[in-house]
Amino acid sequence: MRKTLIIGANGKIGRQLCEKAQAAGEPIVAMIRSTDQQGWFHERGIPTVMGDLEGEMRQAFYGCDQALFVAGSGPHTGPDKTLTIDLHGAMRTAELAAEFGLSRVIQVSSIRSETPLAGPAAMRPYFAAKKAADLCLAESGLRHVIVKPGRLTEEAGNGKLTQDAEKSDEMQVSRANVAEFLLGVMQAREIGGRHRKAPVFTLFDGDQSVSSLLQDAAATV
């Protein structure tokens, strides 16, 4: 069955992605941690399933053919949550995706993940967790895509992006544009790879359409 499990659905990008997918008629199920989070999704007709990155989440994978990991511990938590959510949560997602035979995992990382020590001190645990999660996914043998947004903003999206940091204004990207790109990747199921040959997208606000970026990637598959 064609259905994407959205892990991190209640986050800032996750909610926008779920709304866009629902509007586009793309089958999804939003993984949420508690019934307190259900109202927002049910008001919009978005299906939900219970799952906790720090607890039980296996049941969330039933009936899905791919998973999209856009979860994050957030800026107001400590390194402990960064480890259990951003790193271990991503690792568990890969393990369960393999167990259930999912066709692909889409994982949201960060542009700073390659060089964690180059970032601000307060953010280094986050960047290190993202780097480790990306490496674990690459070594899992799963077919996957990694998306690395720049500095996230709350600006309105226009669906225009670039992968060239030199063309970017302060290496930033709106959450709305990231959500639009993730929807495009969800729909483009032909894009993906295994091990170190999987596509990695760096995202900044720019002047190229989502469809153009994905067409370029599909041409190399």
Polypeptide structure, described:
It is a single chain. The protein is α/β, with parallel strands linked by helices. It is built from six helices and eleven strands. The chain has helices at residues 12-24, 38-43, 79-99, 124-139, 175-187, 210-218, and strands spanning 4-7, 28-32, 48-50, 66-69, 104-108, 144-149, 151-153, 160-162, 172-174, 200-205, 208-209. A nine-stranded mixed beta sheet has the order 3-2-1-4-5-6-10-8-11, sandwiched between helices. Strands 7-9 form a two-stranded parallel ribbon. Strand 4 (66-69), helix 3 (79-99) and strand 5 form a beta-alpha-beta unit. Helix 1 (12-24) packs across helix 5 (175-187) and helix 3 (79-99) packs parallel to helix 4. The radius of gyration is 16 Å and the shape is globular. The model has no long low-confidence stretch (mean pLDDT 93).
Structural topology:
Blueprint: E1 4-7, H1 12-24, E2 28-32, H2 38-43, E3 48-50, E4 66-69, H3 79-99, E5 104-108, H4 124-139, E6 144-149, E7 151-153, E8 160-162, E9 172-174, H5 175-187, E10 200-205, E11 208-209, H6 210-218
Identify the quaternary structure here. single chain
Q: How many strands in all?
A: 11
> Please, how many helices?
6
* Low-confidence parts: none
Overall outline: globular
User: What is the typical, i.e. mean, pLDDT?
Assistant: 93
Question: What is the strand arrangement across the widest sheet?
Answer: 3-2-1-4-5-6-10-8-11
Helix content: 25-40%
